[in-house]
């Protein structure tokens, strides 16, 4: 028998992507990023066109990156893009096309055997397709026939609440506004979106604490921060342009303290590909001045430890708290302080995975800074106790008055480029009375008041009450949501599934009784709907709203825009008595006029968005105004969770806590390739990263192939097969692997309290030897 380190997958498909494991010692960015840019330009089969496109990426007279939501600097530069932005653009602006002959050649059953990369790599969708259950193939359908089918199926439902209108953060503001208006005029608030799966906890916690669910910082605040604390985030892969901002802060001497279970290269050192001298001399710059590695789910305890150290310093005679701010602008400090002081250091250390000395060091760094920003991402928001964790972060900021001053504030770093804008436009299953009142006043129609389903509840609704109609505006719902096999079985019970998309993905193959794929224009393409070149808008993580206009020729002259499809559906579904859909379709300025009448902060929308770099929506927190019930920022006195997942698993022999994460060749569910450069992985994604002590304790070996087995208390067998063990610097008891491959391990019920976000960063697993070996 072969040794575990030399085992190979038995089946041909797995052997083709047997991961090579190495060590990456170079900085993030640098020549590796430039090489990757060149490879993806060539792979698009339109290298010259796409190279020109990059010069207009994130420029005032160009289009917004379809990748992350990091802000654009006001001063601008000739090159405002990163490696993963290039991947996003070339992936969309590929010369490859998926035509009717492709669907005639491959059945849906066969396509289900393909992986995510292969499906999307076929190219752009260019023709509407309808599923034929008898032949198991997608077949061409006319645009009008397809939209009429959707409208007819929606009208035939017993209640509008049997419809689900899902949105991805790739949709622009104008599409999102039309989509939510269409759903509500039809009669439902079933508007789940990708926010439900990522930063919902941020919105809930910030709303409760500060009265506003958005981050308070602007990009210029980073230029004045003396310290930047980064929690649960890997900007080198997920928000690479952020590395330039962090590097500039580090160069001027700002403290950058990172808290992350894995040592991520982008948080350690960075070589800016846009600095010729640095590239010439193979130079780089340190990013984090201090790096702390809490255990999965231990961040709340880590922040609690920092606060406890601050209170102890204050009790020892130092003045570290901002008493004036606390007295004038906050409430419930006493309850919080009492709780913190009563929490034993031993409990904090056990739960955080950090030592008391480490947390006291972090407190010293924090106390030394007169202006601090705290950033966080999904390493914080995808746990059962994410809402109290974000509240704890806000508590820490308030202790030293790090709100409403230059260089301070909250910075939840969003994912998709317009995920925040979609929520601003009303994509939310729990709309406020203010929004519904404004819609009723504008359209003279009553709006549904009962709250709708979020993403997790949408799966439960499809599972428990078959016959739904699911309409997806962008995205890849069944691959993004938890409990993949449960979600797919649920969606297959729909009466109709219809997706507005640019590329083929797995969700298109999970068909209801009837299914449609409706291709549309991409963000990089010229939109001449209504005979005029149209402008769309997006909102970034810092509440900046700016315009975006594509510059590339469309993949097909027959492709409609998202707005064209939605407004035509509106005409067929609810009629034009309340809304002149045609006017919206022919001139997106009309949509923006509607937005200005309904959504606060969008006065003179059309004029303001045409100013270079757009406009800031504002944030009351930035002005130390807190629209809470009391008018003050509210401390949370939530106790530490009784047990976090890593502590639970430590008590169960042979079990680990798994976090799902992206590879470097990935953005959300879109897979650009099989490499994860910064973690030393090439030619494969089926890997599980383990601490060396866990490898020894569990009796496995690096290079061995294992299956990951999840909890199945509800009778559902949760297992993913054929993962190669990789020894990695991660805390003992904590493992990591890529999603969406590991999403089947996350039970639908495993979600955040108060946010309902799937707890992708705290999954109970055990290992079993895999059958996929030679």
Description:
- This protein starts with 11 loop residues before the first helix and ends in a 5-residue tail after the last strand.
- It folds into 3 domains: 4-22 and 642-769, Barwin-like endoglucanases (Beta Barrel); 97-198 and 418-610, Rossmann fold (3-Layer(aba) Sandwich), CATH 3.40.50; 200-412, Dimethylsulfoxide Reductase, domain 2, CATH 3.40.228.
- It has a 6-stranded mixed β-sheet. It has a 6-stranded mixed β-sheet with strand order 27-29-28-31-23-30.
- The protein contains 31 helices and 31 strands.
- With 774 residues, it is an alpha/beta fold.
- 34% of the residues lie in helices and 16% in strands.
- Helix 9 (173-186) packs parallel to helix 26 (562-573), helix 14 (299-315) packs parallel to helix 20 (386-399) and helix 23 packs across helix 25.
The total tally of domains equals 3
Number of helices: 31
What's the rounded overall pLDDT mean? Answer: 92
Task: Summarize the main sheet.
Answer: 6 strands, mixed
CATH class of the largest domain: Alpha Beta
Protein traits:
774 residues; alpha/beta; Barwin-like endoglucanases; Rossmann fold; Dimethylsulfoxide Reductase, domain 2; 3 domains; 6-stranded mixed sheet; 31 helices; 31 strands; 34% helix; globular; disordered N terminus
């Amino acid at each position: 028998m072969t040794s575990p380190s030399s085992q190979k997958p038995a089946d041909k498909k797995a052997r083709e992507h047997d991961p090579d494991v190495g060590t990456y010692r170079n900085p993030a960015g640098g020549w590796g990023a430039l090489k990757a840019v060149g490879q993806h330009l060539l792979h698009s089969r339109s290298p010259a066109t796409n190279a020109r496109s990059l010069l207009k990426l994130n420029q005032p007279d160009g289009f917004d990156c379809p990748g992350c939501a990091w802000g654009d600097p006001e001063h601008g530069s000739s090159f405002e893009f990163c490696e993963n932005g290039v991947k996003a653009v070339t992936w969309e602006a590929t010369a490859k096309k998926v035509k009717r002959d492709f669907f005639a050649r491959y059945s849906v059953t066969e396509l289900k055997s393909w992986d995510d990369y292969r499906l999307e790599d076929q190219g752009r969708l260019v023709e509407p397709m309808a599923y034929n259950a008898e032949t198991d193939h997608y077949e061409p359908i006319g645009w009008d026939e397809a939209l009429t089918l959707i409208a007819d199926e929606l009208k035939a439902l017993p209640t509008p609440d049997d419809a689900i209108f899902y949105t991805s953060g790739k949709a622009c503001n104008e599409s999102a506004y039309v989509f939510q208006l269409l759903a509500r005029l039809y009669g439902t608030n079933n508007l789940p979106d990708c926010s439900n799966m990522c930063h919902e906890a941020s919105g809930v916690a910030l709303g409760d604490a500060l009265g506003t669910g958005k981050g308070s910082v602007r990009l210029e605040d980073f230029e004045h921060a003396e310290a930047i604390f980064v929690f649960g985030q890997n900007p080198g892969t997920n928000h690479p342009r952020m590395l330039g901002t962090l590097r500039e802060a580090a160069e001027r001497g700002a403290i950058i303290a990172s808290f992350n279970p894995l040592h991520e290269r982008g948080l350690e050192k960075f070589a800016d590909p846009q600095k010729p001298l640095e590239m010439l001399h193979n130079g780089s710059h340190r990013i984090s001045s201090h790096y702390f590695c809490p255990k999965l789910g231990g961040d709340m305890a880590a922040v609690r430890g920092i606060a406890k150290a601050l209170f102890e310093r204050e009790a020892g005679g130092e003045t570290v708290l901002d008493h004036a701010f606390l007295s004038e602008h906050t409430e419930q400090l006493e309850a919080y302080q009492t709780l913190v002081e009563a929490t034993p250091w031993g409990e904090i250390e056990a739960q955080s995975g950090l030592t008391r000395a480490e947390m006291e060091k972090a407190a010293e760094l924090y106390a030394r800074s007169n202006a601090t920003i705290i950033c966080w991402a999904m390493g914080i928001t995808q746990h059962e106790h994410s809402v109290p964790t974000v509240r704890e972060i806000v508590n820490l900021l308030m202790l030293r008055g790090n709100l409403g001053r230059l260089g301070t504030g909250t910075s939840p770093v969003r994912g998709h480029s317009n995920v925040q804008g979609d929520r601003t436009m009303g994509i939310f299953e729990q709309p406020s009375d203010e929004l519904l009142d404004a819609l009723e006043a504008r359209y003279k129609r009553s709006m549904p008041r009962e709250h709708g389903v979020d993403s997790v509840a949408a799966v439960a609704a499809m599972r428990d009450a078959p016959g739904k109609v699911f309409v997806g505006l962008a995205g890849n719902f069944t691959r993004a949501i938890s409990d993949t096999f449960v979600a797919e079985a649920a969606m297959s019970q729909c009466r109709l599934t219809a997706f507005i998309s640019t590329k083929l993905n797995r969700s298109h193959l999970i068909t209801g009784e009837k299914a449609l794929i409706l291709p549309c224009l991409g963000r990089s393409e010229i939109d001449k709907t209504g005979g005029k070149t149209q402008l769309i808008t997006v909102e970034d993580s810092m509440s900046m709203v700016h315009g975006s206009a594509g510059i590339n020729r469309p993949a097909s002259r027959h492709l409609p825009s998202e707005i064209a499809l939605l407004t035509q559906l509106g005409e067929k579904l609810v009629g034009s008595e309340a809304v002149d859909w045609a006017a919206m379709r022919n001139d997106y300025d009309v949509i923006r006029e509607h937005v200005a009448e309904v959504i606060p902060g969008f006065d003179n929308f059309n004029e303001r968005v045409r100013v270079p770099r757009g406009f800031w929506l504002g944030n009351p927190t930035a002005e130390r105004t807190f629209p809470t019930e009391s008018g003050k920022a509210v401390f949370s006195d939530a106790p530490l969770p009784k047990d976090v997942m890593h502590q639970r698993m430590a008590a169960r022999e042979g079990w680990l806590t798994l976090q799902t994460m992206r590879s470097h060749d990935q953005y959300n569910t879109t897979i650009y390739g099989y490499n994860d450069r910064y973690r030393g992985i090439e030619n494969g994604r089926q890997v599980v990263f383990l601490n060396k002590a866990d490898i020894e304790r569990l009796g496995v070996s690096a290079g061995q192939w294992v299956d990951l087995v999840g909890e199945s208390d509800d009778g559902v067998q949760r297992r993913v097969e054929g993962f190669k063990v990789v020894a990695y610097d991660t805390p003992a008891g904590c493992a990591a692997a890529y999603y969406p491959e590991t999403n089947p391990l996350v039970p639908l019920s495993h979600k955040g309290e108060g946010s309902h976000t799937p707890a992708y960063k705290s999954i109970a697993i055990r290992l079993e030897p895999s059958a996929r070996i030679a």
